Amino acid sequence: MSKPCTRFPAEWEPQSAILIAWPHADTDWAGRLGEVEETYIALAAAITRFQPVLICVADDDVETYADIRLRSNRVDMDKVRFITVPYDDTWLRDSGPITLREGDGFRLLDFRFTAWGGKFEAGRDDLLVEALAAQGVFGDAARQRIDFALEGGGIETDGNGTLLTTWRCLHERHPDASREELTAHLSAWLQQDRVLWLDHGALEGDDTDAHIDTLARFAPGDAIVFQACDDAADSHYADLKAMADEIAALRTRDDKPYRLFPLPWAQPVLDEGRRLAASYANFLIVNGAVLMPAYGDPADNAAAAVLAQAFPGREIVQVPCRPLIWQNGSLHCITMQLPEGLV
Description:
The chain is α/β, with parallel strands linked by helices. It has one domain (about 5-340): L-arginine/glycine Amidinotransferase, Chain A (5-stranded Propeller), CATH 3.75.10.10. It is about 25% helix and about 25% strand. The radius of gyration is 19 Å and the shape is globular. The two termini are about 30 Å apart.
């Protein structure tokens, strides 16, 4: 009997739901909880226009509170499902499951989550996929625990066997591994036959060590959307220019250049003198739409126009995300898509 085909789907393929976790007073959001709740409400409202959202809650009190807030803001509660599960924080792009299609079923890759190299406490987050699977959230999908530190925000696939990632992030997690060794691991676990590495690109205020989802993303039709910087006086200019040159040199499976969509650069966002990472590349693709982080900057609309070109036929929905970057992440970082049929 032949083995079932196993594949890592692209984010723009059909989805069953988006998985998020509600912020509460015992997470790192406590200092600005009211502000970030507004972002989560706007996010839930945007997602439920297109598909269901699964919301992790820490306990019954958090669920009751979240339910009241969402209902009072007229979110479509028929598309909301709450799941009680312990978690340290709400960065589900990195603590949630990486899902492969395996024949007619699914395999959940449960990598070790170390809170970006041990920067924060993550004991409960590291057990999140196991806890959700134990509750039957993912049906009969197989869960594969992999003793290797890897976050969902650190990898990007085109759904056709090509992975995009950054050397800085993977080398930081695994300093003793060579690029060849890391390529072999990623190829085997994620069912990829090409791994494209970027050596440049990093944002101030990003504590993930240059996650790819803050820098460059695949789009359908052999395209790459990436965060550009056109301000020569900005501290990011040289490195992002070098990254743009790297991306321009990449080739598709057919040995052609990718179609490139550079995103505009937002004005610096400072918090008590600390630069925050306001990246437009941290967008989320859902069924029929692209949800993009908006920062209250004049470049917001220009970024929406670029995404409309890169994702023709999809509605571009701006979600206010300025509160998120206070904790060094944005829209894509707090979400994880679940492929159609998984839940």
